[in-house]
Design a protein that fits this description.
Blueprint (H helix, E strand, L loop, with lengths): L5 E5 L5 E2 L15 E5 L38 H7 L8 E6 L5 H18 L8 E5 L4 H10 L7 E5 L3 H11 L3 E5 L16 H18 L2 E6 L12 H5 L2 E6 L6 E9 L7 E7 L2 E4 L3 H5 L10 E8 L2 E13 L7 E4 L3 H15 L6 E7 L11 H13 L7 E3 L2 E2 L5 E2 L4 H10 L4 E5 L12 E5 L2 H7 L1
Parallel strand pairs: 4-8, 4-9, 5-6, 5-7, 7-8, 15-16, 17-20, 20-21
Antiparallel strand pairs: 1-2, 1-3, 9-10, 10-11, 11-12, 13-14, 14-16, 18-19
Helix pairs in contact: 8-9
Length: about 450
């Protein structure tokens, strides 16, 4: 009898081996190898769905970009993250934890697209197709009723077979397609189970070819692993044009939609939403939301301005320093890099002389947002010192600056828009690096330029 040709594939990174391995030598993850049958090599042919595409070389000046303009969805926060809207022919990948709102934002986007098209003359009948591999059509209808979405141009199909889906897509010819989720789609030409590397790669590739050939935008919803990365091969993120991540902490109603890859706009832009009983609600002024419940005259509370893409967001950093009952004090940081916190604690001990070696230090960013930029260094450091000395900081003061290992305060970017946001939120004093103090401050805002951490703690 003929022996089936099989190969073992890592479901995390896509590495392959002729035999099973307990630990992947590429990504160092355990028990990720799955046996898959090697598909027979098929001679490539031009399929009917890509026959209309131009395969001949074209001079660069002769290429038209008219079809690559952003088409606004109608949801301001989503359009901001996408760079202005959805580009026809683009492929967008949305990832996030279970229940965070991926399916909800897609259905709300479809409702906005369909209703907007019906109001524009000449755009009636702009169809959108929602492909569900996890839920039945009645379940999607129930969610749509909760979101108050009911439009005849929104089509729903509950199907997992890739070949049958492509047939229906060719018949319907929608303007936008959503696949929820890509890990549930399988091809009859591949013998491995749905969700494996081969199936995910094949399904994503077919949707990609169709989108580029027919100028149809496609939204792929992806599962995430326990580490927070999108499940499946890493090549999936390389194939698509835009990668969006939904972030949020359990117990907090706020959701952040972050772009980590965008071929048609800026990366690291964020959209802020609030999860309500009627779906995701836009938060147009995140600063007021994150500072709404800030306590006044409390030690360890400092406000910093974080720049998320082109948007400044004022957030509260809270610190709690207390005597430790253990031989090794605890250092806990939520919403920020723990390694950066250790560096700032070392600066306080070495440069300022604070005795923190026997103190437990807890840091938290209020609202569930994450701070990743060094401009918040000085604010974090001031919050730790404030809690240790039990000395409150002026609630109308904003602190900005990057801290070096020798205690110097370095300049930060985007200082103008940070100061404008501070003035809008009612802050009257801003401590910032001396090299940034030359910028003209908004009316009613006093800027204080400093060059070292010592100066900051003397003023705060």
């Amino acid at each position: 009898m003929a022996k089936n040709n099989t190969i073992f594939t890592c479901q995390n990174c896509g590495a392959q081996s002729p035999k099973w391995l307990g630990r992947c030598p590429e990504c160092n993850n355990w028990n990720t190898y799955v046996e898959e049958q090697i598909a027979e090599e098929v001679k490539p042919t031009r399929s009917s769905m890509t026959a209309s595409a131009n395969f001949s070389p074209t001079p660069l000046p002769d290429i038209s970009t008219d079809a690559s303009e952003h088409d606004p969805v109608g949801i301001a926060e989503l359009d901001r993250v996408l760079g202005g809207g959805i580009v026809p022919g683009s492929v967008i990948l949305i990832g996030g934890d279970p229940g965070i709102g991926k399916s909800t934002i897609v259905l709300q986007a479809f409702g906005s697209i369909a209703s907007k098209a019906s109001k524009v003359p000449g755009q009636q009948g702009r169809k959108v197709l929602y492909i569900s591999g996890e839920e039945s059509a009645p379940q999607i209808k129930m969610r749509a009723e909760r979101l108050k979405i009911n439009h005849e141009d929104i089509y729903v199909i509950a199907e997992n077979c890739l070949e049958r889906l492509m047939e229906e897509i060719k018949k319907l010819k929608p303007s936008v397609i959503a696949v929820d989720s890509i890990q549930t789609i399988y091809s009859n030409n591949i013998t491995s189970a749905p969700g494996t590397v081969s199936q995910v790669r094949e399904a994503a590739g077919q949707f990609l070819y169709y989108s580029k050939a027919c100028a149809t935008a496609t939204i792929l919803v992806g599962h995430v692993t326990k580490d927070g990365a999108i499940a499946g091969p890493k090549v999936l993120e390389h194939m698509v044009d835009t990668v969006l991540y939904f972030e949020g902490e359990r117990g907090h109603p706020f959701r952040l939609l972050r772009a980590v890859k965008n071929r048609f706009g800026s990366t690291n832009e964020i959209g802020v939403f609030e999860m309500t009983g009627a779906g995701l609600k836009e938060v147009l002024n995140p600063s007021s939301l994150f500072l709404a419940e800030r306590p006044e005259n409390a030690s360890g509370s400092v406000v910093v301005a974080s720049l998320e893409g082109s948007r400044p967001v004022l957030i509260e950093v809270q610190a709690l320093v207390t005597s430790s009952g253990f031989s090794q004090p605890r250092r806990t940081a939520i919403g920020m890099d723990s390694g950066r916190v250790a560096l700032l604690v070392a600066v306080l001990e070495k440069v300022i002389g604070l005795q923190l070696q026997d103190q437990d230090i807890f840091l938290n960013v209020a609202g569930g947002i994450k701070v990743n930029e060094p401009a918040a260094d000085l604010g974090i450091l001031a919050a730790i010192a404030s809690s240790f000395k039990n000395k409150p900081i002026d609630p109308h003061m904003l602190i900005l600056g990057e801290v070096g290992l020798t205690g110097e305060v370095r300049a930060v970017s985007g200082i103008e828009i940070r100061l404008a946001e501070a003035a809008k939120m009612g802050f009257t004093k801003v401590i910032l690096p001396k090299s940034n103090a030359k910028v003209k401050a908004p009316k009613g805002v006093e800027t204080i330029g400093i060059s070292s951490v010592t100066e900051c703690l003397d003023l705060a």
